[in-house]
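forwarding from the other thread:

> can someone predict this with magnesium ion?

sure thing
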Amino acid sequence: MSSIIYIVVPCYNEEAVLHETSSRLAEKMHSLMQAGKISPLSRVMFVNDGSKDRTWEIIEELVAGDTLFQGVKLSRNKGHQNALLAGLMTAKDHCDAAISMDADLQDDINAVDEMIEKFDGGCDIVYGVRSERKTDTFFKKFTAQGYYKLLAMMGVDIVYNHADYRLMSRRALQNLESFGEVNLFLRGVVPMIGYKTDKVYYERAERFAGESKYPLKKMLAFAMEGITSLSVKPIRFITSTGFVIFVISLLMLIYSLVRYFMGATIPGWTSLAVSVWAIGGLQLLAIGVVGEYIGKIYLETKHRPKYIVETYLHRDE
Ligand code: UDP
Ligand code: MG
């Protein structure tokens, strides 16, 4: 018995790519079905994340034209991670495994075959990993690498060079549901689930059309989110820095006292001013980091829904 595979594609203002993406996905899915590798009940689910262009109209047309396609409409824009989660949670009751993929054809569709093979071979989670970053700018490559290192330093278990192109089995999805955080950083949370996992390597292409929905500002916020939602090391780091500074100031005190009793006057102004500024700056930074976490606690305690599904369009034969 071949398994039912759902491909979940979050879409925000993707009218420029949807036709191409849907026809390539249809081709792939139909050929997999014909080869008997996946069940004919497999589907492609587009999640419209509150797009302002014709994205939803295109999805409606696709659903009307082919039973392969399904559409989930969120009540408003909720961001990539939440849109993805909405799709996965809708899919999980109907499929044996779901594959999440970007709408812009940056994730190589051909990697799907290998993901499904690994799933059939007993893996619950299969990560799509970029084998190279040819298409990224130097800046993106550099910052991404630094960021993965930083996350590793913070003790976060994350798959290097993996974005959100992955296959998850039904039971892995059911477990994902029990992660209650409002601010979800899927890349960091999924490895916590466990089970047998594997990787599939692919070359990341350039965006087929349209522009990135992750401008620098959003990317920075996302990066910050990744750290604060998965690690408390920054707060611990503050504590140890504070301790080190305290020890240094004690040493300075002893030094000054010794000099005083030896009769030497302390030419103190410079060192005094410098230390006042240094400690003032550090304190502000520390308060900022702590504030970041308190803000997070505040938002998490509200238990607001991560997304609201307005419509679920699907046709069953
Ligand atoms: N996306 C979304 N909601 C958003 C922003 C992006 O659903 O608020 C989707 C977008 O349509 C795409 C995926 O998330 O399918 C990744 O976005 P994008 O390709 O713009 O990011 P990049 O590849 O540039 O990091
Ligand atoms: Mg992209």
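The chain has a mean pLDDT of 86. thats all i got for now
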